[in-house]
Design a protein that fits this description.
By secondary structure, this protein is an alpha/beta fold. It is built from nine helices and ten strands. The N terminus and C terminus are likely disordered.
Length: 269
């Protein structure tokens, strides 16, 4: 997705040796670009014209000039329209992507549910996928064994747990993934739109679990289009628009601005 040269000054680091008073997460002028997939030219003329264009015309910035600081005990909601860069930011926090400019510092072990079912194998059962996804998240086998029953109970999938997950609905896979990802107390938990599916009862239960984890985790970051949900669990919010920070600060202030006037309608076009 992105090209990073070996002598580049940009970096994304997970630093466990920072000063105790340092922020848990700190983004300084962070940017990430991707190259557009070019379709095959349909004529010789189109091919020649394309070769004359600058390489820059084939790239787009997914994030640009992103600055924010997350401190211990904070819960950040990440909002913005589709294509604003929210998921890209989460992938960067999880060290799956690295910035092309600026510095992204993440202090602490991250547990990220950033791509729904990314590590799931549809041919395997729910139980097998718990083990697969736990390994993906770095949860030790011995720890998982002691948590298996708790994970299944929380997911409410007891009668389906030994069925292949190709038979699961999107909501069922989300519940299973959430139950695994939150089975421990990670220092940093990242959730990308995983709570927008499922019934109301499960969303309420998930909300309670997040609030409980907030007391023990260093920080939590949640991507959601539900402003009411973010009001319930967030202390701060980051509003992204077209890859840049539109507003960052206390959750109530940012969400009030996001919901104000015709903001939502204007960005839905």
């Amino acid at each position: 997705m992105t090209d990073v040269s070996s002598n580049s000054s940009e970096e994304c680091r997970s630093d466990s040796a920072l000063d105790p008073g340092a922020p848990i997460i700190e983004f300084q002028d962070v940017g990430l670009w991707f190259r557009l997939q070019a379709r095959r030219p349909r004529s010789l003329r189109e091919l020649l014209l394309r070769r004359r264009r600058s390489d820059a015309s084939d790239t787009r910035w997914a994030l640009r000039d992103v600055n924010f600081v997350c401190r211990e005990g904070e819960s950040w909601g990440i909002i913005g329209p589709n294509g604003a860069g929210k998921s890209t930011l989460c992938l960067m926090l999880a060290s799956i992507l690295t910035p092309d400019e600026g510095v992204a510092t993440v202090r602490g072990k991250v547990s990220a549910l950033v791509t729904l079912g990314a590590a799931f194998n549809k041919a395997l059962t729910g139980r097998d996928n718990i083990q697969l996804y736990a390994a993906y998240l770095g949860i030790p086998a011995k720890v998982l064994a002691s948590k298996m029953d708790e994970i299944i109970d929380f997911s409410e999938l007891q009668e389906f747990i030994d069925e292949p997950i190709r038979n699961y609905s999107t909501g069922m896979r989300a519940r299973l993934g959430f139950a695994v990802a939150t089975s421990l107390d990670p220092e940093i938990l990242i959730l990308d739109e995983v709570l927008s599916v499922g019934d109301r009862g499960f969303r309420v239960k998930s909300q309670k679990r997040i609030k409980s984890m907030m007391k023990r985790s260093k920080c939590i970051l949640t991507v959601s289009h539900s402003t009411s949900f973010l009001r319930a669990i967030s202390t701060h919010c980051l509003w992204l628009d077209r890859g840049s920070v539109h507003m960052a600060g206390p959750a109530a202030e940012v969400l009030d601005a996001y919901e104000g006037t015709d903001v939502l309608g204007a960005r839905a076009d």
